[in-house]
Amino acid sequence: MPLSLQIVCLLLSTVPEIVQLERALKIYFKPKSVNLQLGENETVFLGLNDTTEINVDLEVQYWNQNSDLISIEDVNNFVIRPINNVIIQRDQKEPSKTIVYANKPGHIYLGIKSVPNIHIVNADKPIISVFVIHYHWLYILQIVIGWLYFAAWTVSFYPQLFLNCKRKSVVGFNFDFAVLNVIGFFYYSIYNIGLFWIPLIQQQYLQRHPLGSVPVLLNDLVFSFHAFFISLLTALQILFYERGGQQVSKTCIGIIILIIIYSVIVCILGGANVTEWLDTFYLLSYVKLFISFIKYAPQALMNFRRKSTVGWSIGNIILDFSGGILSIAQMVIIAYNSNDVSSITGSPIKLGLGILSIGFDILFMVQHWCLYRSSSSTNSSSHTLTISKCEATDPEIDEAK
Q: Which regions span the lipid bilayer (predicted)?
């Protein structure tokens, strides 16, 4: 046979494979996520968006939450039982089915390994999420607890606002705390706006965390806006109510100046493309973490110097303490129910700040009910006398004068 004819025959024989290769098939799973209690199972359907001219042998692959491909080394300690290969028959239109068995609490993702001579556009990529927990009722409990601490923290901003209105005075309420609180929630709101509303930042986040979702939800945005607004109203009361000569300390002013300088530098780096905008917003959010670390100290020191908690709302502390305890309880439940300690250890800074905040809450309660109980029991009939006494005995106020 002439060489030219052999080449033509060879090319013709590869046409079906080339056509098959050029077809952009896509694998799909139904449902796209599976939530199982330990010992349960669920039927999952998988198929191709178009028919094929040959039988297709689909091999399941597994990924962890860090987008790392994982292999089954110990079947007994794997989140689910290994799934057998699924065969898609030639010209098959309906999806095939397989059963996912919950084996151990955890969270994994499933996908399909690429198939020779067939172009499956989403092969070798995680497609379906499988979440295995110990108990469904614990999952419901963690949601309920989440709403409870959300409510406690939301309401916690009002007792101080109402107390100042009732007394027509901000004597005993530390101005450094008031100002730092406003700044902290301003930066927290900026961070939430970036991740919730700005497409570029969302895109950069998803590029780094392809298996994740943007961590800022609508309720986070509403909470931060609300916290900033109420904190601002509380701080503005300083301008209109009796303050006994108290002023914002020089230390606090210095901290504010440093925060402004830091923010300008961070924004310049972002604008010059030295850092991605996602990192820019991360760096700005650290201001909130820093303020959360220091903001309670001025109030605690002021109470100690005055030997009184008059003017500082204990209702705010009780609600903040309740929210903090519930928040940590939720993290513990999630860690146990999903066998994932990273829900506790994954963000050590936030965990540490939460514990520190609870520690300050306990300190304020000890000051209010144990150390300075007699001073805190002053009733409204002696309110004027209390203000005068505070002005006379408060070292910070004397210094300001």
A: 137-158, 178-201, 221-241, 253-274, 280-298, 310-336, 348-366
Contact 204, 278 (CB under 8 A): yes
Mean pLDDT for back-to-back runs of 10 residues, the chain (401 residues): 54 47 79 95 95 92 88 84 93 94 94 90 94 96 94 97 97 98 97 95 90 85 96 97 94 98 98 96 95 96 96 97 94 91 72 88 97 68 44 42 35
Do 267 and 280 touch, CB atoms closer than 8 A? yes
Cβ count within 10 A of residue 107: 17
Compute the distance between CA of residue 275 and CA of residue 273 in angstroms, rounded to an integer.
Answer: 5
Say what the pTM is.
Answer: 0.82
| Spatial distance between the Cα atoms of 339 and 333, rounded to a whole number of angstroms | 9
Task: Return all residues near 63 (Cβ < 8 A) that are at least 6 apart.
Answer: 69, 70, 108, 109, 110, 111, 126, 211
Which residues have CB under 8 Å from 152's CB, separation 6+? 319, 320, 322, 323, 326
Residue 212, SS3? coil
Integer distance in angstroms from the first to the last C-alpha of the chain?
110
Q: DSSP letter string over 124-143?
A: TS--EEEEEES-HHHHHHHH
- The answer to whether the CB of 198 falls within 8 A of the CB of 216 is no
Q: How far apart are CA 391 and CA 291, in angstroms?
A: 28
In three-state secondary structure terms, 155 is helix
If one looks up domain 23-133 in CATH, what number appears? 2.60.40.2030
Over residues 252-283, the pLDDT tens digits come to 999 999 999 999 999 999 999 999 999 999 99
Q: CATH 2.60.40.2030 occupies which residues in the chain?
A: 23-133
Residues 6+ apart with CB under 8 A from 121: 24, 25, 26
Residue pair 45/140 in contact by the 8 Å Cβ criterion: no
124 Ramachandran zone, left/alpha/beta (phi>0; psi -120 to 50): left
Q: Are 176 and 248 in contact (CB under 8 A)?
A: yes
H-state helical runs in 119-243 = 136-155, 158-167, 175-197, 199-208, 218-240
